[in-house]
């Protein structure tokens, strides 16, 4: 039977693992053709293979989107492959928790260049195509979903610049939401709490241990839980816009 996203095309950044991979599978299950963007070719192939097994359609686009031309390319490659772009999920992100005293400015730069600059570059390239998709699709709407974090709402020691990127993303999202409203492009932000993914693998051992101690005893969310939230947002009738979705683990304060 018909799926809500039949005929729609989605681009998911950071689709080689965690929330992005789960979201790509979820959107494919709803009927969308999905472009998967990340740097690790083998992992993209694995996710594309999973989607093919579900009977869905996916293409892996290997790209480091912190290179501005590559950020534009992935949008163009999606159009070349699937002909349109209905849904953009800006999910790629990195969290290098550390105190301002002990971190390096290079760690700060890495977070700003992926969580902010790369996201802006992909978004800017995608907007005209989302507008076009909204005016031509049977859904009569297009979707832009930004993956932020509870760290964009609650500041804690060690997350100063990560929180800066995510709270900035919340402001960017709300402004874009208002700008694109009349174009029928819905702009949403999803703010997950603690999710069990590879995100913490980039931390040094001491910082990772401290982060783990803080979440000790909490049953973390699964990537699929966040993918569910994103699936919910993009499958609503065009009358309905879920602007913001804050989703924490049940035990998380
Ligand atoms: P993962 O580390 O599993 O996913 C990050 C994704 O981003 C990977 O697919 C990675 O792929 C991709 N990526 C990293 N650098 C680049 C780059 N330069 N160019 C393209 N892709 C890149 O972690 P999560 O799934 O947890 O993270 C996804 C998002 O969720 C992030 O924005 C994160 O801030 C957010 N989030 C996560 C939470 C959590 O607790 N896990 C909580 C709240 C928000 P590759 O290495 O192959 O390039």
From TrEMBL:
Keywords: Oxidoreductase. One of its GO terms (cellular component) is membrane. Residues 8-196 form the Ketoreductase domain. InterPro entries: KR_dom, NAD(P)-bd_dom_sf, SDR_fam. SMART domains: PKS_KR. GO terms for molecular function: oxidoreductase activity, acting on the CH-OH group of donors, NAD or NADP as acceptor. It comes from the Bacteria. Gene3D superfamilies: NAD(P)-binding Rossmann-like Domain. Belongs to the short-chain dehydrogenases/reductases (SDR) family. This is SDR family NAD(P)-dependent oxidoreductase. It comes from Microbispora catharanthi.
């Amino acid at each position: 039977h018909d799926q809500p996203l039949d005929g729609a095309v989605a681009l998911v950044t950071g689709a080689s693992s965690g929330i992005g991979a789960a979201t790509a599978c979820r959107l494919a299950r709803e009927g969308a053709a999905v472009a998967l963007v990340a740097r690790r070719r083998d992992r993209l192939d694995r996710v594309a293979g999973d989607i093919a097994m579900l009977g869905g359609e996916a293409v892996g686009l290997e790209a480091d989107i912190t290179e501005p031309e590559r950020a534009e390319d992935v949008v163009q490659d999606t159009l070349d492959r699937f002909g349109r772009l209905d849904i953009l999920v800006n999910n790629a992100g990195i969290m290098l928790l550390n105190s301002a005293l002990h971190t390096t400015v290079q760690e700060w730069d890495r977070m700003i260049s992926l969580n902010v600059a790369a996201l802006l570059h992909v978004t800017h390239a995608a907007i005209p195509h989302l507008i076009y998709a909204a005016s031509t699709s049977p859904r009569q709407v297009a979707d832009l979903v930004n993956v932020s974090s509870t760290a964009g709402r609650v500041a804690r020691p060690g997350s100063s610049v990560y929180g800066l990127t995510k709270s900035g993303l919340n402001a960017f999202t709300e402004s874009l939401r208002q700008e694109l409203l009349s174009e029928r492009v819905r702009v949403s932000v999803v703010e997950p709490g603690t999710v069990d993914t590879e995100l913490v693998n980039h931390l040094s051992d001491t910082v990772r241990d401290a982060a783990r101690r803080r979440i000790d005893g909490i049953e973390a969310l699964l990537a699929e839980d966040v993918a569910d939230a994103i699936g919910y947002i993009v499958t609503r009738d065009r009358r309905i816009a879920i602007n913001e979705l804050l989703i924490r683990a049940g035990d998380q304060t």
